[in-house]
Design goal:
The complex is a heterodimer of chains A (about 625) and B (about 475). Chain A contains 26 helices and two strands. In chain A, α5 packs antiparallel against α6, α5 packs antiparallel against α10 and α16 runs parallel beside α20. Chain A is globular. Chain A is mostly helical and about 625 residues long. In chain A, strands 1-2 form a two-stranded antiparallel ribbon. Chain B is mostly helical. Chain B has a domain of about 220 residues. Helix content of chain B is about 75%, strand content about 0%. In chain B, β1 and β2 form a beta hairpin. Classes of the chains: A mainly alpha (about 625), B mainly alpha (about 475). Chains A and B meet through α25 and α26 of A and α7, α9, α10 and α12 of B.
Chain lengths: ~625, ~475
C-alpha cells in the first residue's frame, strides 16, 4: 500500500471535486459519509507509509518515499518536478493532518447539521485537507508554495463561510490580506532560493548548504524571508492580527485550520528547512526571539478576553510561539513534538468550545456563561483535560512537549528566552483556568430561555471529544525526557534522519529534574492563581483592573495593535488609492479608454454603412478591390 | 493500380453521396437514420483511407493529384468538420424543415470539393474542386426554402461567387498564356527564368482575388455576413471552417513557389500586407456594431482570415494548419451553441437572447465562454497558441507593423466576444426563449469541441509534431 503513498492527498481532492461538481444532486447523508471517508483513506494510506519507513527511521537512515508524477516546470538545466515526498517529518504531519482532520470531519457532521450550505462546507474542508497534505508532502519549495497558497485560500473561504455576516466577510478579507504580506516575503525568498541554489528540491537544498556553496549572509536573507512568510501563516508577531478575527468561521474550522494544522505550517516549513536555519545563526536567533515574545505577548492578551474562542485563538498564537522558540534554539524535534501534541489538545479545546456554543445557542461571551459543569458533563470533563494538558500539568502530553523546548533553551544557555518561556507558561495556566472557571463553575449567568434549551451535544460530537481527550493525555509518552531513561524519546529518534543535531545537551540529571520541577510548579501556581481570582474571591479581578486601569485597558484592547496598524498602514493606503483613483484613474486612464472606445466604435459604424445588403454595392466594392490590386501590381 | 487506390478517400465520399441520392429517389423516408449513417461512415472511411497514405507522399496522375502529408492532414480535418456538422444538424434539419436526403449528398460533395482543392498542385484541378465546392455550397445555403433570408443568401452567394469565379478563370487564362502550363511546378520553373511579366502578375493576382473571395478577405468579403446569417446554422458552421481552410491551404501552396521571386521584385508583398491589415481592421471594427451573434461570428471569421493571411505571408505552414485546426474546434463549438438556441424552426441569436443563459443552461454558457475566450485568443485555450505561433513567426521575419495591427485589433475583438459572456453571466433580466439543451448528440459535439480547444491549448505537443512532420515533408523550394 505504501507504494501508493502519493494517493494520500488525492483522496480528499477527488472528494472535494465530486462535491463541487455534483454536490447539488447529492443527498446530505451521502455527503456525510463521503467527505470523512476520503480523509480516513488518506489516514490509512499515511499509516501504511509510516509503518513502511518507521523501522528505517530508527536505523539512522535518511530514507523517504518519493514519487515524481510529472515534470512540471522545465527550462534548460532548471527543473521543478511535481514530486511527492514522504519521509519522517512528512509522516508526522500527514498523520496529524489526516488523523485530526478525520475526527474534525466527523464532528462537523453534527455541528453543521442544520446549515444550509452543508455540501459547500464539506467540499471546502476536503479541499483544505488536500492543500495541507500537498503542502507537507511537497518534494520541493515551489510545490510547497502551491499548498501554502491553497491552504490560505481555503482558510479565507472558510473564515468567510457565513459570508452573509459582514463581520465574517471582513474577517476573511483581513486574513487573506495579512497573509498576502507574509506570502510576498515567502515568494521573494523563493526567488532568491531559485536564483542562487538553482533548485527547489529539499535534498538538493541541503546538499548545496552542506557543500558550502552558499554564503551565510545569503542563507540568512532567504531564511528570514521564509520566516516572514511563516509569521503570516502561523500568526506570529507582527502578522498575528488576523487569527483572532478568523474565529468568525465555523468552530470545527477554527479547530482544524486555525489551531491544529494550517497555522502550524510555518513550524513545519522551518523544520523542513532545518539545515538552512542551522546554517544561519542570525535567522535562528530571530526565530527564537519572535517565538518567545509571541508566546508571552499573546498570552497576556488572552488574560483579559471574554470571548471563549478568542481566548483560544490567542492561546494558539502563544503556543505556536513556543514551537518557533524550539526551532529557533535548534530543537526542531521538540518544536515538531509540540506541534503534534498541540494538534490534539488545541483541537480538543476548540471542539469542546464549539460544543458549549452549540449548547448555548451560539453564545460566545464567558460573562454570560458559568455553572455549565453539571449541564454538559462530557464537554466539561474533556475541556478540563484539554486545559490541564495545555497548562503543562505533569504527565499530560503538553507538559512533555513544552518542557522539551524549555529544557533546550536552558541547555543552550539562553536563560532570557527560558524565562520568557516560563512566564508564558504561568500565563497559559492562568488564562486557561480562568476560562474553565468562568465557563463551567460559579453561578449561572445565562437567561432562562437559553437554560431551557441547554443540552449536551449528540454523540457524533462528543465521541470525537473523548477520542481527542484520550490522545491529549497519552500522546506525550512517545517523547519522554531523558530523566526517565535514555532512548525513551522515540519521537526525536524517529525524526533524527531528517533533522540535523545542532546541539548536544550537557545538562546533568539533577538540573534536568530541577527544570522539570520548576515547570510543574509554575503550572500549578498558574492554576491556583486562577482559582483564587475567579472562584474563591471573584471580586479580585475587578479590584486589580481598577487599581491598574491603564494596564487593563491596554491588555483588553489587545495593545491597540489593530488600531495602530489601521492608522499606520490601512488609512494611508486607502487615502492614497483614493487620491490616485480620483486624480489619475478617472480623468486620465478612463478618459483615454472611453475615448478610444468611442473612436473605434465610430469607425465601426462608418464601415458598417457600406454593408447595404444590395448585391450591386457588394459587386462594386469587389471590382474596386480588383482595380486597386491590379493598379498596385502594374504601377 | 496504386493511382486508383490513392483516389479511395474521394471515391468513398462521392460513392456514398450517390448512394444517398438513390436512396432518396427510390424510397419513402420519414426519418433518415440510414442516410446519416452512410454519410458519417463515408466521412470516417475517407479520413482512415487518407491516413493510410501518410508518409508515402507522392503525386499521381502525372502530378495532378498530390496526396502528400499536408493533403492527408487537411483531408482528415475536412472529414472531421463534415462529421461534426452532420451530427449537429440531425435534429436541426428536422425542426427547420429541410429534412431531405440531398442535404447529406450535398455536404459530401462539398467535402469532396474541399479535398480536391487541397490535394492538387494543378491549377485547373484546383479550380474544379473549387467549383464542386461552390455549386454544392450555393444549394446548401438556400436549403431552407421557406425562409426568405436563406434564399436571399443562396442568390447572393451564387451571384457574387460567379463573379469571383470569372476573375479566377480569367487569371488562369493569363497564367496559361504566359507559361503554357497549369502545373504549379512547371509554372514556377518558367517564372524562375523569365523576367517579370505583367501578364503573369495580373493572372496571379486575379487568382489570388478568386480565392480571397472564398476565404473572405476584405474587400471581397461583402457576401460573408449575409450568407452566414441566412444559411442554416450548421451550414454556416461548415462554411466558416471548411472552405476557409481549403482556401488558405490553396493560397499557401500557390504562394510557396512564387513568393520569393515575386516578392523580391514586385508589389505583391504590399498587396498581401494591405489585404491582411484591411481584413483585420474591417472585420473587427464592424463586428463591434453587431447585435446578432450569428452575424457577429461572420465578421469574426473575416477578422480571423486577416490573422491567417499573416501566416501566408510568412509561409508558416505549421502555424497556419495549427490555426485552422484550432479554429475548427472553437468555431464549430460556438455554432453548436447557436444551434442549441434554435428550437422548433426559430433562431434566437440576438445578443439579448443570451441574457442570463448562465443560470438557465450553465454548461452551455460555460462552454460558449470557453469558445469565445479562445476566439479572442486568451490562454490556456487553443486560440491563444494559434495566434501566438503565427504572430511570433511574423515578428521573427520582420513583419512587426502587421503584428502590431493584429494585436491591436485582437484587443478590439476582446470587447465583442466578452460582451456575449457579459450577457450570459451578468445580465439582470433573463430571456425566456426555449433552449434545446437536451439533445445528447449536440452536447457530445459541444464537449468534444471543448476538449479540442483545451487539449490544443494546454498540451499541443503531439499535434504540433504531427503538423511539423507534414510541413517538413513538403519538397524544398
Amino acid at each position: 500500500m505504501s507504494e501508493y503513498f502519493w494517493l494520500i492527498p488525492l483522496f480528499p481532492a477527488a472528494s472535494s471535486f465530486i462535491l463541487v461538481i455534483f454536490g447539488r444532486w447529492l443527498p446530505k447523508k451521502y455527503v456525510s459519509v463521503q467527505a470523512p471517508l476520503a480523509v480516513l483513506l488518506s489516514f490509512i494510506f499515511g499509516l501504511a507509509s509510516f509503518l513502511k519507513i518507521y523501522p528505517r527511521g530508527l536505523g539512522h537512515e535518511a530514507a523517504g518515499l518519493s514519487k515524481t508524477l510529472f515534470s512540471w516546470i522545465h527550462s534548460g538545466s532548471f527543473q521543478i518536478d511535481f514530486t511527492f515526498w514522504f519521509d519522517q517529518l512528512t509522516a508526522v504531519m500527514v498523520l496529524v493532518v489526516s488523523g485530526v482532520g478525520f475526527i474534525i470531519h466527523v464532528y462537523s457532521i453534527g455541528y453543521m447539521a442544520e446549515d444550509r450550505s452543508y455540501t459547500r462546507y464539506f467540499s471546502l474542508l476536503n479541499l483544505f485537507t488536500f492543500a495541507m497534505l500537498l503542502l507537507v508532502m511537497a518534494g520541493n519549495m515551489v510545490l510547497m508554495f502551491v499548498g501554502w497558497e491553497g491552504v490560505g485560500l481555503c482558510s479565507y473561504l472558510l473564515i468567510g463561510f457565513w459570508f452573509e455576516r459582514p463581520s465574517a466577510a471582513s474577517a476573511g478579507k483581513k486574513a487573506f490580506i495579512v497573509n498576502r504580506i507574509g506570502d510576498a516575503a515567502f515568494l521573494l525568498g523563493l526567488f532568491f532560493l531559485l536564483f542562487n541554489f538553482k533548485t527547489a528540491s529539499f535534498p538538493e537544498i541541503n546538499r548545496a548548504l552542506t557543500d558550502g556553496r552558499i554564503s551565510s549572509s545569503l542563507a540568512t536573507l532567504i531564511a528570514l524571508l521564509f520566516f516572514a512568510g511563516a509569521t503570516g501563516k502561523s500568526a506570529q508577531i507582527p502578522l498575528y492580527v488576523w487569527l483572532p478575527d478568523a474565529m468568525e468561521g465555523p468552530t470545527p474550522v477554527s479547530a482544524l485550520i486555525h489551531a491544529a494544522t494550517m497555522v502550524t505550517a510555518g513550524v513545519y516549513m522551518v523544520s523542513r528547512l532545518n539545515v538552512l536555519y542551522s546554517y544561519s545563526g542570525i535567522a535562528a536567533e530571530v526565530v527564537a526571539i519572535i517565538g518567545a515574545l509571541t508566546a508571552v505577548y499573546a498570552g497576556t492578551i488572552a488574560l483579559t478576553q471574554f470571548d471563549i474562542k478568542r481566548v483560544l485563538a490567542y492561546s494558539t498564537i502563544s503556543q505556536i510561539g513556543y514551537m518557533f522558540l524550539g526551532c529557533g534554539v535548534g530543537a526542531f524535534a521538540a518544536g515538531m513534538f509540540h506541534l503534534y501534541t498541540h494538534a490534539f489538545f488545541k483541537s480538543l479545546l476548540f471542539l469542546a468550545a464549539g460544543s458549549v456554543m452549540h449548547a448555548l445557542s451560539g453564545e460566545l461571551d464567558m460573562r454570560r456563561m458559568g455553572g455549565l459543569k453539571k449541564h454538559l458533563p462530557i464537554t466539561y470533563s474533556t475541556f478540563l483535560i484539554g486545559a490541564i494538558t495545555i497548562a503543562g500539568v505533569p504527565f499530560f502530553s503538553g507538559f512533555f512537549s513544552k518542557d522539551a523546548i524549555l529544557t533546550q533553551c536552558y541547555a543552550q544557555g539562553k536563560y532570557f528566552l527560558w524565562l520568557l518561556g516560563l512566564t508564558g507558561a504561568i500565563i497559559t495556566a492562568f488564562y486557561m483556568f480562568r476560562l474553565i472557571f468562568l465557563t463551567f463553575h460559579g453561578q449561572e449567568r445565562f437567561s432562562a430561555e437559553i437554560r431551557h434549551h441547554l443540552h449536551e451535544s449528540p454523540p457524533v460530537m462528543t465521541i470525537p471529544l473523548i477520542i481527542l481527550a484520550f490522545f491529549s493525555i497519552i500522546a506525550g509518552y512517545i517523547g519522554l525526557p531523558v530523566v526517565f531513561g535514555h532512548d525513551l524519546n522515540f519521537f526525536e529518534r524517529f525524526l533524527e534522519p531528517v533533522i540535523i543535531r545542532a546541539y548536544e545537551t550537557h545538562l546533568s540529571l539533577g538540573i534536568e529534574w530541577l527544570l522539570i520541577i520548576i515547570s510543574s510548579v509554575i503550572a500549578f501556581v498558574g492554576i491556583f492563581l486562577a482559582y483564587v481570582f475567579y472562584l474563591k474571591s471573584p471580586h479580585l479581578p475587578h479590584q486589580l483592573a481598577s487599581r491598574f486601569p491603564g494596564v487593563y485597558r491596554l491588555l483588553f484592547n489587545k495593545y491597540y495593535v489593530d488600531e495602530i496598524y489601521n492608522i499606520l498602514f490601512v488609512k494611508p493606503l486607502v487615502k492614497g488609492s483614493e487620491m490616485v483613483y480620483y486624480n489619475f484613474d478617472l480623468p486620465i486612464i478612463d478618459g483615454a479608454v472611453n475615448g478610444s472606445a468611442k473612436t473605434v466604435s465610430f469607425f465601426g459604424r462608418i464601415l458598417s454603412l457600406v454593408q447595404s445588403g444590395l448585391i450591386r454595392d457588394y459587386a462594386l466594392v469587389f471590382i474596386l478591390g480588383v482595380a486597386i490590386i491590379l493598379g498596385l501590381i502594374l504601377f | 493500380m496504386n493511382e486508383f487506390a490513392s483516389l479511395s478517400p474521394l471515391l468513398i465520399l462521392v460513392g456514398a453521396s450517390l448512394i444517398i441520392l438513390l436512396l432518396e429517389a427510390f424510397g419513402q423516408w420519414s426519418k433518415r437514420w440510414l442516410h446519416s449513417l452512410i454519410a458519417l461512415a463515408s466521412l470516417g472511411g475517407c479520413a482512415i483511407f487518407a491516413a493510410t497514405f501518410w508518409g508515402k507522399g507522392a503525386g499521381y496522375f502525372q502530378g495532378t493529384y498530390t496526396l502528400d502529408n499536408i493533403a492527408i492532414l487537411m483531408t482528415v480535418l475536412f472529414s472531421l468538420a463534415g462529421f461534426l456538422v452532420i451530427l449537429v444538424s440531425l435534429s436541426y434539419m428536422i425542426q427547420h424543415g429541410f429534412n431531405r436526403g440531398e442535404y447529406f449528398s450535398l455536404l459530401l460533395f462539398a467535402v469532396s470539393g474541399l479535398i480536391i482543392m487541397t490535394t492538387s498542385e494543378d491549377l485547373i484541378v484546383i479550380f474544379l474542386g473549387l467549383e464542386t465546392l461552390s455549386v454544392a455550397s450555393y444549394v446548401l445555403a438556400g436549403l431552407k426554402k421557406e425562409d426568405e433570408k436563406s434564399s436571399e443568401a443562396a442568390i447572393k452567394y451564387f451571384l457574387l461567387g460567379s463573379l469571383a469565379s470569372s476573375f479566377l478563370v480569367l487569371g488562369l487564362a493569363f497564367i496559361f498564356i504566359h507559361s503554357q502550363s497549369f502545373s504549379l511546378k512547371e509554372i514556377s520553373f518558367v517564372i524562375d527564368k523569365s523576367e517579370n511579366s505583367p501578364l503573369f502578375l495580373i493572372g496571379f493576382s486575379l487568382v489570388l482575388i478568386g480565392f480571397g473571395f472564398k476565404v473572405a478577405l476584405v474587400p471581397f468579403h461583402m457576401w460573408t455576413p449575409d450568407v452566414y446569417q441566412g444559411a442554416p446554422t450548421p451550414i454556416t458552421a461548415f462554411f466558416s471552417v471548411g472552405p476557409k481552410a481549403a482556401g488558405f491551404l490553396v493560397l499557401f501552396r500557390l504562394l510557396r513557389p512564387f513568393l520569393e521571386p515575386i516578392f523580391s521584385r514586385q508589389n505583391l508583398q504590399i498587396i498581401l500586407w494591405l489585404l491582411s491589415a484591411l481584413t483585420m481592421i474591417v472585420g473587427n471594427l464592424v463586428a463591434l456594431r453587431q447585435k446578432n451573434v450569428k452575424r457577429l461570428l461572420a465578421y469574426s471569421s473575416i477578422a480571423h482570415a486577416g490573422y491567417l493571411t499573416i501566416a501566408l505571408m510568412t509561409q508558416d505552414g505549421q502555424g497556419l494548419i495549427f490555426y485552422l485546426l484550432a479554429y475548427l474546434f472553437m468555431n464549430i463549438g460556438a455554432f453548436s451553441i447557436l444551434i442549441a438556441l434554435s428550437p422548433n424552426g426559430q433562431e434566437f441569436h440576438e445578443l439579448d437572447d443570451f441574457n442570463g443563459l448562465a443560470t438557465r443552461a450553465p454548461w452551455l454558457a460555460a462552454s460558449m465562454s470557453v469558445f469565445l475566450v479562445s476566439l479572442a485568443g486568451f490562454p490556456p485555450t487553443a486560440g491563444f497558441l494559434a495566434k501566438f505561433y503565427v504572430f511570433s513567426t511574423a515578428v521573427r521575419q520582420g513583419y512587426t507593423g502587421l503584428v502590431i495591427i493584429a494585436v491591436l485589433t485582437s484587443l478590439i475583438s476582446v470587447f465583442y466576444y466578452l460582451r456575449i459572456i457579459v450577457h450570459m453571466y451578468m445580465s439582470k433580466q433573463i430571456s425566456k426563449i426555449t433552449i434545446k439543451a437536451d439533445d445528447p448528440i449536440l452536447l457530445v459535439v459541444i464537449f468534444f469541441c471543448l476538449y479540442g480547444v483545451l487539449q490544443l491549448g494546454l498540451f499541443p505537443g503531439r499535434v504540433l509534431t504531427l503538423i511539423q512532420k507534414a510541413v517538413l515533408s513538403l519538397p524544398p523550394l
